[in-house]
User: What shape does this take?
Amino acid sequence: MKRILLIHTGGTFGMALKDGTLAPSSFIQRIIEFVPEVKQIAEIESHIVANIDSSNIGIEHWLKIADVIVQNYDDFDGFVITHGTDTMTYTASALSFILDGLSKPVILTGSQRPLSEIRTDARNNLINSVELATYPIPEVCIFFNNKLFRGNRTKKIDIWGFDAFDSPNYPPLAEVGVEVKVYEKNFLKRKNFKLNVSKNFSNEVFCVKIFPSVKVDFLMSLLELDIKGFVIEAFGSGNLPNIEERSLIPFVQKASEMGKIVAISTQAVYGKVDLTLYQCGKDALDAGALSCKDMTTETAIVKLMFLLAKYGDNVALIREEFYKPIAGEISED
Assistant: This one.
């Protein structure tokens, strides 16, 4: 029987557990109590990293999760991480960059209603995540409502429905119905399956969402802060205001001249950024902006955090590496 390590971080899933504290033994006992089926799928052990609302997740938690996986890597066939939905995509992206050469499944899942509730999605998500973790899927994934997605391609799209996540620009890795359908053709094509761990992230990154009549002075004031990288959620295919007093192009140009990275993502869910499509985007490109292409904003933020920590002040190398896929988070041209 396969061995799966269940790593708990908190979130709605674990709200069945009272008093805000958890111990590994009591946690696994409660899981087995509510979902005895998992014992038929695999041998389960558990580890508690945290028991917090995922809004409070930070870099230190990404590193703790990674440490648990690395320390137990040879002893388990797969890993399932129960995690709050609000920041699950950020954690999945971070782990995909940390765990280079991953050859085993690391699956994040959670729920919209607690495991203790009668009408809950937690049971289905957990059972299927554990089963899929027994498959040879060499990726960091998110499983939710019968679909397994590449984690760094995933976006939370619903705070009410059970179908809370989608992968707008990349197809599922697996789907669960009467049968389990695994789409190996969509798996990450790794050149190396030897685990290589990189655990540094910079928090000197800031994300700005553009809206009509946004004040340029507000953005300019950000240049005085210790921010090394900006992700700007622009309109459409990556368009920024570019006329008269509304133009944000001077901000992009000034930031670039100061050695800061400016990456342009989109407020649209589907499609990709193309800074050559309209003059508004081309002006930003000419001023020094990078295109996030088909990366989600969440993944672009985490990738910039990762690259800034890895390459420091080597702006030219960061700009070059931003366009290269690390773990399938961006499509190659």
Summary: The mean pLDDT is 94.
